[in-house]
Write a structure and sequence with these properties.
Elements lengths: L1 H16 L19 H14 L15 H6 L3 E3 L7 H4 L11 H20 L3 H22 L20 H20 L18 H17 L7 H5 L17 E3 L15 H6 L12 E3 L1 H9 L5 H4 L48 E4 L1 H14 L6 H16 L3 H8 L15 H12 L5 H11 L25 H6 L1 H5 L19
Antiparallel strand pairs: 1-3, 2-4
């Protein structure tokens, strides 16, 4: 945190007062010495979209949130590669799976945006910054639990203390409420334009995004002892509406198709697609047999859109073929590497595709769960069907195909057939709909609910433990803020849990 705090201080000084004479020798003549609110917004939104879509320049050993797809049964490590012990054996250290750095660097930029907007009297930009901070801080908690929050952006304290994850969640909900209220009372204030690469300055859509995020934060705590108290706050903003199949949080700064220099593509494409020469960017990621069999058993037509079809090595028609994570029978067999399915064409549509920040399908599933549990009023079945439809549409399938699918009399598909356990049906379908950019949310919901059932433990015989329940604080934090991170005690990826992860198995 020390280095990050220094970055915050430097950005704040530049943003508020320009480049001082004493810093002249360090000025890059090719970069602006003073930022603006629109530039700050566009840049922070772009990085905010990069993170859940798998493109984190400071991550390692799996890259971004890809590891969660390996652990929750969505992906597997390709055969034909040297064994990846950190992935398939659950070997977690302070040196791998670092998403802390990217999150806090972007939070620094968002905080600077908020400071600028407040100082210059731009309440809509200020509200957007508050919503974005809540979005990124939720990810900090969901990855690490306790973390610097109240002192994270101090320019005088280089060693911020840690706030409890539950406290950060509570404050994020309060910030969302305050942001919505600020938007509502700022009807004549300046709104963003093209600098807002998510909603183009549509503040009604920002309120729906904020409200959907709030619903996620509340439902994530459904297993905690004070959930009823937490849930009561949902009523204060329910009238603002939520994201749905027509209003989604998608970032589009003008991603470039087949950019020869790299880094300008849509982040999901950049992480899992191919370069300008058609060479795959990430041939390590393959389909997991678990997810394939789950969808096969549900007669799910989304399967060839989520995973690619490949030549059947045993002859016959093309097929969708995966492997279980850590399968020792296949992990070193180079002959089958080319006959394993990759990320599919419904997820990898083009290098210019929009980046998913918060999908309408996810929001609709949250609403269906909330109505089914009594948190919200409405028609849970209608919302559930609409969520499935939104997922089909996002992949390029039709509403008719969606209707035929959820009309099946199959448990975890048809609403009536799933009456004995509707939560399981909702979360199972949500798991499928979150394929690709939603890998982290798949993992979060599995930790919270245990659904879908049967997510397999790695088959690697050298596995260090069961499926991890969290990652470790990064080495940089132990190096620069050791007193406070060490105060968190010994962290185990298998037994140390995020505060909302309360299920017993």
């Amino acid at each position: 945190m020390k280095k990050i705090t220094l970055i915050i201080a430097a950005i704040s000084a530049i943003g508020l007062s320009g480049c001082k004479k004493s810093l002249d020798q360090t000025v890059n003549p090719n970069a602006p010495s003073q930022t603006t609110i629109p530039l700050s917004l566009s840049g922070a939104e772009k990085v905010m979209a990069d993170i859940p879509n798998g493109w984190l320049p400071n991550a390692n050993s799996g890259g971004g949130y890809t590891q969660y797809g390996y652990w929750d049964g969505a992906y597997s490590v390709s055969s034909g590669f040297i064994v990846q012990p950190d992935l398939s054996q659950y070997v977690l250290t302070t040196g791998n799976f670092n998403v802390w750095t990217d999150l806090y660097i972007n939070l620094s930029n968002i905080n600077n945006l908020q400071i600028l907007a407040t100082a210059q009297g731009s309440p809509n930009y200020e509200a957007i910054a508050m919503i974005m901070k809540s979005y990124d801080f939720e990810q900090v908690v969901d990855n690490y639990n306790d973390a610097p929050y109240s002192e994270a952006f101090s320019t005088t304290n280089l060693f911020p203390t840690y706030d409890k994850g539950s406290v950060i969640y509570a404050n994020c909900i309060s910030q969302i409420d305050a942001a919505i209220a600020l938007i509502n009372k700022s009807t004549t204030a300046t709104v963003p334009g093209s600098d807002d690469i998510i909603f183009g300055g549509n503040m009604t859509s920002w309120k729906k995004f904020a409200n959907s995020l709030k619903l996620r934060l509340i439902l994530r705590q459904s297993g905690t002892s004070n959930y009823s108290t937490i849930a009561a706050d949902m009523a204060s903003t329910v009238s603002e509406g939520f994201l749905d199949g027509t209003t989604q949080a998608l970032a589009q700064p003008g991603y470039l198709l087949n950019d020869a220099y790299g880094g300008q593509e849509s982040p999901f494409w950049h992480a899992y697609g191919s370069n300008q020469n058609g060479v795959p960017e990430n041939i390590l990621v393959k389909a997991n047999t678990y997810s394939i069999q789950l969808m096969h058993g549900l007669n799910d037509p989304r399967l060839p859109y989520i995973y690619s079809t490949v030549v059947n090595p045993n002859g016959g028609p093309t097929t969708i073929r995966g492997l279980y994570l850590g399968d020792p029978a296949l992990s070193n067999d180079t002959n089958v590497a080319g006959s394993l399915s990759n990320v599919g064409p419904g997820l990898l549509q083009s290098a210019a595709q929009s980046a998913v920040v918060f999908s309408g399908a996810e929001s609709l599933f949250l609403q269906a769960e909330a109505v089914n549990s009594g948190l919200l009023t409405g028609d849970a079945q209608k919302l559930y069907n609409a969520a499935i439809t939104a997922s089909f549409e996002a992949l390029g399938l039709t509403d008719a195909q969606a209707s035929a699918y959820y009309g099946q009399n199959i448990v975890n598909v048809g609403w009536g057939a799933s009456a004995a356990n509707l939560e399981q049906a909702i979360i199972t379908q949500k798991y499928i709909a979150l394929a690709g950019p939603g890998t982290f949310e798949q993992y979060n919901e599995w930790r919270r609910t245990g659904y879908p059932v049967g997510v397999p433990v790695t088959l690697d015989p050298a596995a260090a433990g069961p499926i991890p329940r969290r990652i470790l604080y990064p080495a940089v934090e132990y190096d620069t803020n050791g007193k406070n991170v060490n105060a968190e005690g010994t962290i185990s990826p298998f037994t140390s849990r995020i505060f909302w992860d309360t299920r017993t198995n």
